[in-house]
Amino acid sequence: MRLARRQEPDTFEFHKPTPGEQLIHFEHISKAFGPKQVYDDVELDVRAGETLVVMGGSGAGKSVLLKCLIGLLRPDSGRIVFQGRDLTRFSEEQFIRVRRHVAMVFQGAALFDSLTVGENVAYPLREHFPDMAEDEIRRRVAEKLALVNLPDTERLMPSDLSGGMKKRVGLARAIATDAEVILWDEPTTGLDPVTTQSINELINSMKTKLGVTSIVVTHDMVSAFTVGDRLAMLANRRILQVGTREVMLHSTVPEVRAFLDARRVELVPGGAS
């Protein structure tokens, strides 16, 4: 039987961190879905201002990590500490406040099909800032769409968009509230090489233009090595190694070696297909 969660104060204030300092800490995280144990004892730090790539095979639980961070799933044990606050103790109402600062770009963009592009991007503004004036909402929507290179697309419907454009609208929606942390769930899955490269460039531009912290989960090694400042290997229900691109390329951890060797052709210039 689980112990009742202690209630945290019903506030969450984000304080601008110093680049490089620990911003998020996953501490001894365990998670299971019925008999399937996804995590045994996951430990991982995320530093302010970096792009951290979590790589691993299909079914390793990469996306589960992101969903636990924003409260869509709950770990069975362990802590997720964000700016000194233990998010595993937060109520759904408290997570609403957290999601102003931590936004997720879902694998399929997860746009509302019945809403226009502009209405999709405006959605989190209306949710988090119900008193915001319509003129300000329109200004912010136009600003965010221009930032992701989709100006003057507010009246389009999701059905009018390509896969890459949908990802860009998903990002515009994610940054509409000026979120400081962006979570990317398999951002290049199903995209052609040209569109994949444009998404990689977009991830990098968010760091240079906005100074955001990003966590990218992927099994696409071209993307991982293009955008990642550090990479973390998730396998066997744990984080096996974390390091820079150079460290990971020369890893002696057997599971990391096997994962990279199986995708070696992707990492050779011109080798991606």
Automatic annotation (TrEMBL):
Signal peptide (UniProt feature, chain positions): none
Keyword Transcription among UniProt keywords: no
Taxonomy, superkingdom: Bacteria
Transmembrane portions of the chain: none
Keyword Transport: yes
A Pfam family reported for this protein in Swiss-Prot or TrEMBL: ABC_tran
A Gene Ontology molecular function term of the record: ATP binding
CDD domains xref list: ABC_Org_Solvent_Resistant
Domain ABC transporter per the UniProt entry, residue ranges: 24-261
Keyword terms: ATP-binding, Nucleotide-binding, Transport
Coiled coil: none
PANTHER family to which the protein is assigned, alphabetical: INTERMEMBRANE PHOSPHOLIPID TRANSPORT SYSTEM ATP-BINDING PROTEIN MLAF, PROTEIN TRIGALACTOSYLDIACYLGLYCEROL 3, CHLOROPLASTIC
Full protein name: ABC transporter ATP-binding protein
Native organism: Pyxidicoccus parkwayensis
